[in-house]
Every structure is written in structure tokens, then in C-alpha cells.
Design a protein that fits this description.
two-stranded antiparallel ribbon; F420-G6PD/mer; 2 domains; Luciferase-like_sf; 342 residues; 8-stranded parallel β-barrel; oxidoreductase; alpha/beta; TIM Barrel; 11 strands; 15 helices
Length: 342
């Protein structure tokens, strides 16, 4: 069988805790690997949903985050992830990221140089989970002679979310893996993942770190139906990510690396989508090939295999709409059938 990454699902603050539980139980029943929570600025906090999902499931990993140290101090992260890990009987993981700079600025803080803040966070959280007394005064965050008053699991995995080279290197040096956002091509994810692995090796760390990629998923027995849904899922993100690409070189590279889509084509598509045109008519299959799993179940697994070949170890798939739970079951069945053919 062609090598496949693990398949999990992405949950976020735009969903109610009840909706998250419904999708989490579908993923648990379908044999998927984990739940990846995305806590976005000023949306619902993910901890109530993560706790509810921990109690409603038995097998899937509960990956809480992506926590932003500018809105949640690293000591609080350690306290909370330790409790979620206890609640889930050792299934928790933590992911951290610096958030969107414009949102952080609304809090009166500056996230223009996120790497020192993430480094402080990793040092503080890792030490606390190991049961150490942490005495750290960093450029961004401080914990002076702090120790958790309970024994947490020392090896709770910690991943860093980001796309920049410095963030990837930091993940290799101190974290257990890297989370790559939506609207990043497989080629781009593979490159930053390789950079992280090189940094890990240079730091004298053994084993390989995880590379987790966010992707929308649109699956249907009728390929045309799935492709239309996939184009609309990607289309909802194109204007925002194209605008981000005008400010950040790494964001633009993520859109164009290996996709065969020229910058002028992205600009034209973004303009048409902002004008209200239907993404199913605006975008061609290059966009779904690059930024989604879309098509029949076999199409989706073939696309997942391309990410595995690039070095991605797990896909965190976003399922939306009334058929989301059924679509999760469809992907799980296809994954099980593929494993049976191996």
C-alpha cells in the first residue's frame, strides 16, 4: 500500500462545544488519529470543547491549542494541558503559536518577533511538565521559581505552529513537531519540515519530529460534487491568505511552491472571490489539488499520500456542513479498506 500519513480532524472556535463533540465521536468511531483544536483570537476558547471531547472519546488524541502565549501565559498552558491529559487518560498534546500579529496588537502587545516568545514558552512549559522548579527570565515571558503542585505527564508532546524558517528551526531544537497551516502546498510543508528535522539533528536530538498539516476535506462518491465543495472551502481562504502573502514572503511561497499557480492568477482569483463570485466557478482543480483533499474517497487518499511523500506525518482535516460526521465516517472507511489491502 502507498504510504499514508495519519488522518485526524481539525476543530476550531467557530464551532460550538456540542458540534465539536459530535465530530470528535465520529472521528473516534472512524478510527482517525486525533483531534486538533485551533483556538483563534476572540472566537470561542477551545478548553471547554477539548474537555468535553476528552470525556466523549476513548482513543483519539486530544491536541489542545494552538495556544498563544500573548493571551495565555506559559505557566497557565502547563496547568491546563496537564489537567486535560489527566481527563483524557494520557491522550493530550499541546500546540503553541504566536497568533496573528494584528490580533495580538489589540491586546496592547507586540508579536512582530515571535520566536523569542515561543522559545520562552517552550522552556517554561517543558520544565513545568517535567516537575522541575522553573526559574526563567526571558525576553518575552518569565516564571520565577515556579513548580506545578501536581505531577503532570513529563512527555506530553508539544508542537509549534508556524511557517517561517526561524520557527521551523526552533521546533526542531526544542519541540516535538511543527504544525503547518491551511493554504500551504505539500512542497512547502515538506521544505519547512525538512528544515525542522535538520535543526533537530543539529541539536543532538534523536528520532524524527512530527509534521502536521491543516487541510479542508470534501469527500463524496460523486467527484464533481466533492470538487465543487472543495473549491468553495479553498475559495473562502484565498483572499485572506493572498493578502497575507503580500506582507509575508513565507506566506506567498506557501501558496506558489509547487502548485503551478502564478502570482497573477492568485491575485485575479482573490479579486473575483472578494467581488462575490462562486469559488466553484472561479477556481480550477489546481487549487483543490494544492490546498485540499477533495474528490472520491480514493482521490482523497491519493492526495494524502502525496503529503506523506513530502514528509507530512499527519493531516488535520476540516470537515464542514451538515454531512461532516458522515464524511468523517467515509474517510475512515476508506482508510480502513486501504489498510486491509496492504
Amino acid at each position: 500500500m502507498t504510504s499514508l500519513p495519519q488522518l485526524g480532524i481539525r476543530l476550531h472556535g467557530g464551532q460550538t462545544p456540542g458540534a465539536c463533540v459530535a465530530l470528535a465521536t465520529a472521528a473516534d468511531a472512524a478510527g482517525l488519529s486525533g483531534l486538533w483544536f485551533a483556538e483563534n483570537a476572540f472566537a470561542r476558547g477551545i478548553l471547554p470543547a477539548a474537555a468535553a471531547c476528552a470525556l466523549a472519546t476513548r482513543r483519539v488524541a486530544i491536541n489542545a491549542g494552538v495556544f498563544n502565549p500573548f493571551s495565555r501565559h506559559p505557566t497557565m498552558m502547563a496547568m491546563e494541558i496537564g489537567a486535560i491529559d489527566e481527563l483524557s487518560n494520557g491522550r493530550a498534546g499541546l500546540s503553541i503559536g504566536s497568533g496573528i500579529a494584528s490580533a495580538v496588537a489589540k491586546l496592547g502587545m507586540n508579536a512582530e518577533k515571535p520566536v523569542p516568545a515561543l522559545r520562552d514558552t517552550l522552556v517554561i512549559v517543558r520544565g513545568l511538565l517535567r516537575g522541575e522548579e522553573v526559574d526563567h527570565a526571558g525576553p518575552a515571558f518569565t516564571a520565577r521559581k515556579v513548580r506545578l503542585d501536581h505531577a503532570a505527564r513529563a512527555d506530553i508532546p508539544i508542537l509549534v505552529a508556524g511557517r517561517g524558517n526561524l520557527t521551523a528551526r526552533l521546533a526542531g531544537e526544542l519541540a516535538d513537531g511543527l504544525i503547518v497551516s491551511n493554504m500551504c502546498s505539500a512542497a512547502f510543508a515538506g521544505r519547512v519540515g525538512a528544515l525542522m528535522q535538520e535543526a533537530r539533528q543539529a541539536a543532538g536530538r534523536t528520532g524524527r519530529a512530527r509534521v502536521v498539516q491543516y487541510l479542508p476535506c470534501a469527500v463524496h462518491r460523486d467527484r464533481a460534487v466533492a470538487l465543487a465543495a472543495g473549491k468553495r472551502a479553498v475559495g473562502a481562504m484565498v483572499p485572506g491568505f493572498w493578502a497575507l502573502g503580500q506582507r509575508l514572503a513565507s506566506a506567498k511561497e506557501a501558496l506558489t511552491d509547487g502548485t503551478g499557480i502564478a502570482e497573477a492568477e492568485f491575485a485575479a482569483a482573490a479579486a473575483r472571490l472578494r467581488a462575490g463570485e462562486d469559488a466553484a466557478a472561479v477556481l480550477d482543480e489546481r487549487y483543490t489539488d494544492a490546498f485540499a483533499l477533495a474528490g472520491t474517497p480514493d482521490d482523497c487518499l491519493a492526495a494524502a499520500a502525496r503529503y506523506a511523500a513530502a514528509g507530512v506525518t499527519e493531516l488535520a482535516l476540516t470537515f464542514e456542513g451538515e454531512t461532516a460526521a458522515a464524511d468523517i465516517a467515509t474517510i475512515g472507511a476508506a482508510l480502513g479498506a486501504a489498510a486491509g489491502r496492504a
